[in-house]
Every structure is written in structure tokens, then in C-alpha cells.
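Sample entry copied in:
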Amino acid sequence: MESRNDFPQIISSLPTKDKAIINSLHETALALGYMAKISPVGKKSDDWKCEYIATKPKRILYILRITGQRVSIRAKLLHIAEYSDVLESCTEHCKASLLSASKDCENHGGGCAGPISFTIDGKSYSKCRHYFLFTGITPEDVEGIQQLLKNEAKY
């Protein structure tokens, strides 16, 4: 059997609307110089992840997760405070995803690297350092997510 480790194949089971959205974000990451590393997740044949990795410095921009027909983007936006003006142009859905994806940082010390702080609509937030999760992405959300990824890739 042919290997399923190519991008068109892993998105083939998604609805047409989601394919267009995911393909657009995929092309954005590739255009920014990130390599797509595709691997299976779990035991089901339609569960995949695609990590978008830069080689120098080695870091992940985002992870695409496909679980059956559900899709999520886990964006590593460590420098979001540097381009918080971009957040103003994001859809309300994207803003809500940014705020709900991570808990408020209580700076627990020890191994904690501290919060990621940013401002949306004039209000300041300090979230724990991990991925910001986008689910239920709509065509209207794509441009805002692309702008976030393009800005993060500058760092």
C-alpha cells in the first residue's frame, strides 16, 4: 500500500471547506520556510499530525492535528506581544480561541518560563507558555491566523 505520509492524502477525508482552509495555512507555513513533518497519531488510520518546523533555529511554528474529520491548529505564538496590533484584525472567533486555549499564568516558579503577555481590545492577558489552540476554523478566520503565523515566523 502507498504511504499516507503526504499532505494531500492526510487531508483527503476532510470536508471540502476544511481542506481549503488547511491547505491555505499549509502553504503559508511552507512559504515562510518551514518544513512539514507528517506523522500518524494514535491507532486510527485517519489520525495525523503535521508539525511545521524551522531548522535554524529549530522550533515549531504550529502543529496541525487531524482526528477523523476534526481539525485543530496548535500555534506556538511565543512573541505575540511583539505584534499584538495584528490581534485587532482577527475575527472574534480567533480572539476567543486565543483567550480560551491557555489558562492564566500564575507563574508557579521552578520550571516555569513565565507568562506570554499580550493585549486584545485594550485588555491585557498573561497566559501560560504553550500552544494557542484554534478549532472550528472558518474561512473568515484564515487571514488572521495567517497574519499571526507570518509575524511569529519573524522571531
In short: Residues 7-152 form one domain.
